[in-house]
Design a protein that fits this description.
Helix content of chain A: 55-70%
Structural class of chain A: mainly alpha
Structural class of chain B: mainly alpha
Strand content of chain B: under 5%
Strand content of chain A: under 5%
Oligomer: heterodimer
Order of helices and strands of chain A: HHHHHHEEHHHHH
Distance between the termini of chain B: 50 Å
Radius of gyration of chain A: 19 Å
Number of strands of chain A: 2
Radius of gyration of chain B: 20 Å
Strand order of the largest sheet of chain A: 1-2
Amino acid sequence: MTQLEFAGLAATGSLLAGFLGALAGLGGGVVIVPMLALAFHVDVHYAIGASLISVIGTSAGAQAAQPAIRPAAPSALAPRHQGFHGASFSNLRVGLFLEVATTIGAICGAFLSSSTPTRWIAILFGLVLLYSAVMSIRPKIDKPHPGPPDPLATRLRLNGTHPAELPALNASSKQPGSQPESAPVPYTARRVPLGFGLMFGAGALSGLLGIGSGAVKVLAMDEAMKLPFKVSTATSNFMIGVTAAASAGVYLSRGYIDPAIAMPVTLGVLVGSVAGAHVLARAQVHSVRTVFALVIALLGAEMIFNGITGGL
Amino acid sequence: MPSPDQNAENQAPAATTQNDCVPHGLLAPSIRAYRRTCALLRRLTLTAGFIILAGGLLFLRQSGSTPTHFHTFHGEPASLRHLPLILAGASHAQPLAIIQLGILLLIAMPVARVAAAGLCFALDHDRLYTAISTLVLAILLASFLGHGF
């Protein structure tokens, strides 16, 4: 394959990955490594390097095209009069506090990646893909979490408010419709140490596999810290680029980042994800989400198979 | 399964023109500063994209017909691993160095965002989060400077 052919094919594949990834709310980064490794027979370390740069690009691009990119989560029943109020759902304090864990984790992961055999990376990657597939099709509904917030969360001022957009699901609360401009919704953070620990793991996976590991970040904030889904998704989007940047230094100095591979991949994913986010703002995408989850699960299975047989 | 909140999404562009990227956690003094930084980073991200594209087109014009050797890992040469050498290469219009420069600019975006957040917290006299932002920034810089960058 010549450089021109590779660039054309890789850019097209990355464009598609970025587009579908944005529609599915996963980010295209997660399919870049399997695509490069399985379809183009690119060495896994080069693939990881290119993927990491595309993750940083997608994160920066998502923030550059902010109005269009919303947390991809379908939330329950938002009537027309209760729209977004323009404020972001992300919580800067939660993001920065947890980034202490993700950046340290990412540097550890990036150091491990050169001493980890390719087949182990492939197997671990496959497992993360399978897990991401499950996470992407799981229903995203916030359950109320009664109980006091973590005292640590109060001391760190992690509790916050998010713009109101969910109407009350139970009839007992104040009548929807009477208040078109409803007040911000307060939320609290729970189990902060557990969330912090999981974030270290998310960072390590990001550094080891060159992915954003958004699915693990959302798990830490969603399931462990019990933050509302939109808050955890938006905050995770903010954190992904910072986490990836932490391992980029290690990757660069180890020679993982080949400009000839990273160029078509980064540009493709960037354009694809911005386009996907624009479509997402207008269309209903449940079938896409399911199809993408299936694709990811299949890729995950293939990565595990190749890892076990040593085919990569 | 509930349907996506299309209506809310449709309203978003109109509503988000003023405070599109302001996250929870900042106070009034710093919100304008944060918004301005967002606008600046937006332009820089676009610039990075164009640098990568320009370098890429130059690269494909010069060596588009050479075969690829991506199957085995060789590691990049020093000229594409260290900032001074990348800058030198880019100033001599070497296509791969130009791409790498654009990639470096892209990597700098999240780092700049953390620095901006730290400054905003400082404006708000939020000592705890100024310290946490500084810590994250220090970890990020250590990962670059610790590698003969």
